[in-house]
Write a structure and sequence with these properties.
Elements (H helix, E strand, L loop, with lengths): L3 H18 L18 H6 L11 H5 L12 E8 L5 E11 L3 E18 L5 E19 L4 E14 L2 E15 L5 E15 L11 E9 L5 E7 L18 E2 L5 E2 L3 H10 L2 E10 L2 E8 H7 L10 E9 L2 E8 L8 E8 L1
Antiparallel strand pairs: 1-2, 1-16, 2-3, 3-4, 4-5, 5-6, 6-7, 7-8, 8-9, 9-12, 10-11, 12-13, 13-14, 14-15, 15-16
């Protein structure tokens, strides 16, 4: 039988090797469904990989190494109203098999609404729909006292009118838990894969992402803090916008260059996501998250904006959970997430 430490080393090595062939570039990838939150729990924190064990089945699918037996026979259903008539739905179910480990199964889909179908001359001939579907099959297992590993397979199918496309993505993950369980950390490599069947001759790339998340629970306070670093495979993930250059040209033709230190801080903080859980009782929690990157990309110049802020709450009662969250994308509209969970 393969030594457990060797197995963990192989997984981390394979994750690092993906750096050599990843050509994903922020803002230029297909399959946006891979970047969307799959539950209100994740949305309220503003992160898409949970770096801590939780009682939420859908959260576990974002980081397969936190799948454990405490989630056996948990199910969750999520609904999200997106923008302009589009909506998202998600299902998640987790199950433990003693001999094989812990498994998670999910289905996530986006309906972009109805569109009018016309001829070249503008005559209406009907309507059509646009949909993305993603299946999730996750596996997780403890291999040492403090170390857990996991993997996820995600087939993605797109149907735009009569055109279809297919892609296959994989996630690899490892989680470390301190002896006190107050500190937990996860290393996750997301969306390793490629588009197999494209709409045209040009294939889309997947939003490849290497993440490192750390969480700290306070021993004498009902608070958990999270810091998650994303897109570690690339330092500069800032958008390029010719209409809003960072170097400003004055009326007299002189150029005010962006300050080097300001640019360094901006690039660094775009990788970091901060969040906190406050749990005053076992029946209720509040969550808050903040993304500097989202704020910078979605803010409106010369206007107050909450872009980048996320928040929500959850209610636990016996075997039921109800979670609500809102993520502030833009001052003129933000989606609401509702997740209902049940433990059989």
């Amino acid at each position: 039988m393969l030594n457990k430490k060797i197995l963990l080393t192989i997984i981390i090595t394979l994750s690092s090797i993906t750096l050599l062939f990843s050509q994903s570039e922020a803002g230029k990838n297909g399959y946006a469904i891979l970047n969307l939150y799959n539950s209100a729990r994740m949305t309220s924190l503003g992160i898409n990989s949970m770096p801590r064990f939780s009682n939420d089945a859908s959260s576990a699918l974002t980081n397969p190494s936190i799948l454990d037996s405490s989630l056996n026979k948990n199910i969750s259903v999520t609904y999200t109203d997106l923008f302009a008539g589009a909506f998202q739905g998600a299902l998640a179910y987790t199950r433990t098999f003693q001999k094989y480990g812990n498994f998670g199964f999910g289905l996530q889909w986006i309906n972009y609404g109805k569109f009018t179908q016309t001829e070249e001359n503008g005559d209406e001939v009907g309507s059509f729909s646009v949909n993305d579907y993603m299946l999730t099959v996750s596996w997780g297992r403890q291999i040492e006292k403090n170390i857990f590993i996991g993997a996820t397979m995600k087939p993605i199918f797109s149907q735009y009118e009569s055109y279809t496309a297919f892609a296959l993505a994989f996630d690899l993950a490892a989680t470390y838990v301190s002896n006190s369980k107050l500190w937990q950390a996860s290393f996750v490599v997301k969306n390793i894969g490629r588009q197999i069947d494209a709409f045209s001759n040009e294939r889309d790339t997947l939003p490849f992402d290497i993440q490192l998340g750390v969480s700290k629970q306070f021993k004498h306070a009902p608070v958990i803090l999270y810091v998650v670093a994303t897109d570690l495979q690339k330092w500069n993930i800032r958008e390029n916008d010719d209409l809003n250059p960072r170097d400003k040209t004055n009326i007299d033709g002189t150029v005010d260059k962006e300050k080097t230190f300001s640019a360094f801080l901006d690039k660094g903080f775009r990788h970091l996501h901060f969040a906190a859980d406050i749990t005053p009782s076992k029946y209720f929690y509040l969550s808050l998250g903040y993304s500097w990157r989202q704020h910078q990309e979605m803010k409106v110049d010369d206007a107050f904006s909450l872009a980048g802020l996320s928040y929500g709450f959850g209610i636990n009662y016996k075997k039921y959970t109800l979670n609500y969250a809102r993520n502030e994308y833009h001052r003129y509209g933000s989606p609401n997430y509702i997740t209902i969970g049940y433990k059989f």
